[in-house]
Write a structure and sequence with these properties.
Blueprint lengths: L10 E5 L5 H9 L4 E5 L2 H9 L5 E8 L3 E2 L3 H4 L6 E9 L3 E4 L10 E5 H6 L1 H7 L2 E5 L2 H11 L4 E5 L1 H7 L2 E5 L8 E8 L11 E10 L4 H11 L4 E9 L2 E12 L5 H13 L1 E10 L2 H9 L2
Parallel strand pairs: 1-2, 1-3, 7-8, 7-9
Antiparallel strand pairs: 3-4, 3-11, 5-11, 6-9, 6-10, 12-14, 12-15, 13-14
Helix pairs in contact: 8-9
Catalytic activity: prephenate + H(+) = 3-phenylpyruvate + CO2 + H2O
EC number: 4.2.1.51
GO molecular function: prephenate dehydratase activity
Length: 290
Amino acid sequence: MMNDSPDPGNAIAFQGELGAYSHLSCRNAYPGMEPFPCRTFEDAFAAVREGRARYAMIPIENSLAGRVADVHHLIPYAGLHIIAEHYERISHHLLGVPGATIADVRTVKSHVHALGQCRNLVRELGLTAIVGADTAGAAAEVAARKDPSFAAIASELAAEIHGLVSLRAHIEDAEHNTTRFVVLAREAREPNPNLPCVTTFVFRVRNVAAALYKALGGFATNGINMTRLESYMVGGEFVATQFYADVEGHPASHGLRLALEELDFFSHEVRILGVYPQHPFRIHKRFSFE
């Protein structure tokens, strides 16, 4: 653990250092709560489970990089409930020490995904890219080295925390670069079933022909929109597969109730991880494509 929370009832845990994009998401989604940085996702889950933080803000997928490694394996066994989702537009900055200019920079350090999302700038400036553990850590290193030729790709919040300057803003190659987070708590929270909701669940099927097709048939016949389906091996075995799924709807609604009943018939170990309100970003994007 990176620090102790002075007020567990008002703390929100996240993986990474202060200034990370997860920290930025905590501040934007819950501005009145105190950020609680943790070294690993497991540490963030434990902070909530053990009562040292109220919530955990966990990234689950990015519009460019895809799913966040390991999270889908960890959340089903965290002993927590998903109570909300949050979408954070990722705006990368090239950060340097005060007094540095773009012309001074020769080397840039950041997380591998951030570097990959800013390839055009790295190529344009002819920079040597160094992969770091995370964006905020790279910003901290720039501040410590005080070398005008050494820069980081990180958030504007990281610049604020470490006393750096943004040499160029919004340097990401794609304007749609967005990360989806889920918020976890010790207790489930029941949203209004009459409002747009998301239901997240896991289930297993045997590795036999048509098992998944039969298990998911009820979602199609009942008009349920499945927005995410991830698969991974269970316990290193090839005979069974676990799936992590998001669907739009509340289990109390007629269609989703029937779909889950059919899923339960053709699969096993169906377990709901959370039922929570749809974020406005999701609703806006859906209608923008209709």
